[in-house]
Amino acid sequence: MILNKNFLVHKTGSDTIIVPTADAGFSGVVKGNTTLGVILDYLKEDTTVEKIVDSMVDNYDAPRELIEKDVNETITGLRKIGAIDE
């Protein structure tokens, strides 16, 4: 899976904003926190949920269960708006 090219990512401080282009098929803006930004960084290249979770567990001081929950919720939300290409 990879971030759909019709979604642009902008980071400002601790906020991450996803803006769809006219071709995205989604209207609106998604605003998230630093965790969203980190997950979107992984989605710049083709990856899997498991790879994202494993990498975040290695790089952040948080329980694996919490990281898995956050990643799965984020990926589910991104799929709902069409922001991920499988």
Given the C-alpha coordinates, what overall shape results?
globular
Low-confidence stretches: none
Characterize the main sheet: 3 strands, antiparallel
**DSSP summary: helix tally:** 3
Please provide the count of β strands. Answer: 5
The neighbouring-strand order within the major sheet is 2-3-4
Structural class: alpha+beta
Question: Beta-sheet strand percentage?
Answer: 15-25%
- Radius of gyration over all CA atoms, rounded: 12 Å
Reading the helices and strands in chain order gives EEEEHHHE
Mean pLDDT: 97
Level of helix content? 40-55%
Q: End-to-end span in angstroms?
A: 4 Å
Supply the key terms:
alpha+beta, 22% strand, 86 residues, globular, three-stranded antiparallel β-sheet, two-stranded antiparallel ribbon
Please characterize this protein's 3D structure.
With 86 residues, the protein is of the alpha+beta class. The protein is 43% helix and 22% strand. The chain contains 3 helices and 5 strands. The protein has helices at 34-42, 49-59, 64-80; strands at residues 2-3, 7-12, 15-20, 30-32, 84-85. The strands form 2 sheets. A 3-stranded antiparallel β-sheet has the order 2-3-4, covered by helices on one side. It has a two-stranded antiparallel sheet with strand order 1-5. Strand 2 and strand 3 (15-20) form a beta hairpin. Helix 2 crosses helix 3 (64-80). The longest helix is centred in the last third of the chain and has 17 residues, at 64-80. It is globular. It starts with a strand and ends with a strand.
